[in-house]
């Protein structure tokens, strides 16, 4: 929770800081694009390295890189800020892959059942919503009393505390421990698993499509609501209250997922299909709505699906993807995700068109969900990894 607190604390004010430095919108767009490209390019290599050299080490690396990115953002030099965005992009890849890989390994090494994994992810998503609300309130107070750059300094404190907790309480765990397999061979193994295991490919497809839509939504919801708000009155939108409402919706979605996957025992693939279909509808209907309140409700519905999505996809990855390459595969899935977001950011696409694009991506994710496994198992991907290892060893001996 400490690392997500640091992320939520400074995230909402990145644009505000860049704007306070007097950068033009095109320059700010370049900074954001640099972050997404960095995540797509460097994240794949770092993910595979984490599987081989230890997830704990790379969780600590996350705290160092993200702290550095928060410190660098205090500079008003455009080129120094580009370096900060590169570090931030790498950190984002680590945040959404290595921590999960470490947790899943620790979960099974302590003898917990796979059935309780869904509950763990559901509680984590609920807790993330609470942390986001707390971080938003704290960031707002800091900006009011200490300026727009203060949340970034506070975030460094959270990351430093997280690093101490990791050092003092976490055990190291690994994915691919073979001395004969280097980082690039691990990437090769991961790519082969993705191409040969249809279940892993389906997980990657829905992850890339859904999360790309989610990141684009972060950029479009404010301007979209403002376009409807101006029609009714000239007062400003309560962005803080809207953000808090979104976080509460995510928390409710996570509780709903826990009920669906627990007491109701609905198959994960069925939950996925329903989640993606509802998400698609929630971002397609705004194109036909000219009412601010109904538009807000539709966006709340989309955030509810986010609360369902995160524990859902985490459980799928844990049960289907082999331990050897879990972080590697997770980061490979982020490459198309980041490319989609970069395309939207650099294209001259209107806000309604962006919303339409997101709705289309989510509908494609709904179609892909029919290839998700009914009964999840990592045995198939583990067999593929073992086969590739034997092939590499044979080539080396020859």
Automatic annotation (TrEMBL):
Keywords: Cell membrane, Ion transport, Membrane, Transmembrane, Transmembrane helix, Transport. CDD domains: MFS_MFSD5_like. Signal peptide: none annotated. One of its GO terms (biological process) is monoatomic ion transport. InterPro entries: MFS_trans_sf, MOT2/MFSD5. The chain crosses the membrane at residues 25-46, 58-80, 86-104, 125-143, 149-170, 200-224, 236-256, 268-287, 293-313, 325-345, 351-371. Gene3D superfamilies: MFS general substrate transporter like domains. It is a multi-pass membrane protein. It is found in: Cell membrane. GO terms for molecular function: molybdate ion transmembrane transporter activity. GO terms for cellular component: plasma membrane. PANTHER family: MOLYBDATE-ANION TRANSPORTER, SAM (S-ADENOSYL METHIONINE) TRANSPORTER. Mediates high-affinity intracellular uptake of the rare oligo-element molybdenum. This is Molybdate-anion transporter. It comes from Cetraspora pellucida. The lineage of its organism: Eukaryota, Fungi, Fungi incertae sedis, Mucoromycota, Glomeromycotina.
């Amino acid at each position: 929770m400490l690392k997500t607190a640091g992320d939520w604390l400074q995230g909402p004010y990145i644009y505000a800081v860049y704007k306070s430095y007097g950068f033009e919108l095109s320059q700010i767009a370049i900074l954001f694009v640099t972050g997404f490209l960095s995540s797509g390019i460097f994240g794949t290599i770092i993910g595979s390295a984490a599987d081989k050299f230890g997830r704990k080490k790379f969780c600590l690396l996350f705290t160092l890189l993200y702290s550095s990115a928060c410190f660098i953002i205090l500079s008003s030099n455009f080129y120094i800020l580009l370096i900060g965005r590169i570090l931030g992009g790498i950190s984002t890849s680590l945040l959404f892959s290595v921590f999960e890989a470490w947790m899943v390994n620790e979960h099974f090494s302590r003898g917990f059942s796979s059935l309780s994994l869904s509950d763990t992810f559901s509680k984590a998503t609920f807790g993330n919503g609470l942390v986001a609300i707390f971080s938003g309130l704290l960031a707002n107070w800091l900006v009011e009393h200490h300026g727009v750059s203060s949340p970034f300094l506070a975030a460094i404190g959270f990351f430093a505390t997280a690093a101490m907790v990791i050092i003092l309480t976490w055990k190291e765990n690994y994915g691919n421990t073979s001395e004969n397999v280097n980082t690039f061979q691990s990437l090769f193994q991961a790519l082969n698993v993705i191409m040969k295991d249809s279940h892993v490919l389906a997980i990657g497809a829905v992850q890339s499509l859904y999360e790309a839509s989610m990141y684009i939504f972060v950029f479009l919801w404010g301007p979209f609501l403002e376009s409807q708000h101006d029609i009714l009155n000239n007062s400003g939108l309560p962005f803080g209250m809207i953000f808090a409402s979104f976080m509460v919706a995510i928390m409710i979605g996570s509780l709903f997922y826990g009920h669906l996957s627990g007491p109701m025992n609905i198959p994960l693939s069925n939950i996925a299909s329903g989640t993606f279909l509802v998400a698609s509808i929630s971002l397609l209907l705004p194109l036909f709505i000219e009412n601010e309140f109904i538009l807000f409700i539709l966006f709340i519905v989309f955030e509810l699906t986010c609360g369902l999505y995160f524990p859902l996809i985490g459980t799928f990855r844990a049960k289907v993807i082999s331990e050897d390459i879990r972080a590697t595969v997770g980061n490979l899935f982020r490459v198309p995700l980041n490319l989609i977001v970069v395309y939207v950011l650099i294209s001259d696409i209107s806000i309604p068109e962006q919303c339409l694009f997101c709705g289309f991506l989510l509908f494609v994710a709904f179609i892909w969900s029919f290839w998700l496994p009914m009964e999840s198992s990592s045995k198939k991907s583990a067999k593929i990894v073992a086969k590739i290892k034997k092939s590499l060893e044979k080539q080396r001996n020859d």
